[in-house]
Amino acid sequence: MTLEILICTYNDRINQVQNVLMQPAHNISYLVSWQQSEGYEAPELPAEIASRDDVKVIVVNGSGLCNNRNNAIANATGDVCLIADDDITYIPHHVAHVVEYFELHPTLDVATFKYESRNYPKDYPSYSFDLRQPVKGYHVSSIEIAFRRQSVQGKVWFNPLFGANAPVLNSCEEAVFALDALEKGLSWFFFPYAIARHEHATTSDRLAGVPATLMSNGAYIYLAYKDGTAPLRYVLLAWRACRNPLKFFTALRHVLQGVEYIKKNCIPALQ
What we know:
Number of helices: 10
Distance between the termini: 28 Å
Shape: globular
Strand content: 15-25%
Order of helices and strands: EEHEHEEHHEEEHHEHHHH
């Protein structure tokens, strides 16, 4: 089986992609989805990228991280695909084993792994589990996701209403992607195996208390919890975000704004 690493980058951040690339390795290739904003004057590809036979670069116009990820997924050709950003580094001898998880588990559609970080460490369970029975406190990050291409391509996409540079909601795109995959019956397991290093704060961490993040989480709760517990979860989210009673109702207002937004604009992740 082949592994294809799907790297999403934007405008001048193409110059960072070379730091993601590992030494050429058998059965590992890269697809770089280079998103370019309106009016952007693209430079020539950095030589470190252009000279690599194992790297393919495709250009997509517009904005929105989810649109960029969807472009990468649509153009992928590897047996197993690994989602990447342009600010991570891989642990080469660990990445090489990603395909083995899919070979050892023939019915596995999606797998989530770990990343390491000195500056922003993330807590993970120490054991593997099925995402249909999630562990409390666990959340998915995009750069942890690998998938069997034939299971995902044409079936599951990142919802462009969520994520960086989306019109309103700035995060939760990974959680919505996971929700969509599980609702479509895909199998998804977490494996406590570190494959990458990431030394930057995630959007959810950097912007935890801003209105767009609260709205994103409110919208996700609305989509994810149809068991009647959503209203309580809205309140708990606002309470955790702002313990000061004077600010609680402001936080709750933003959460509910996200709910109303997704009710009015909800579109399926797959178009």
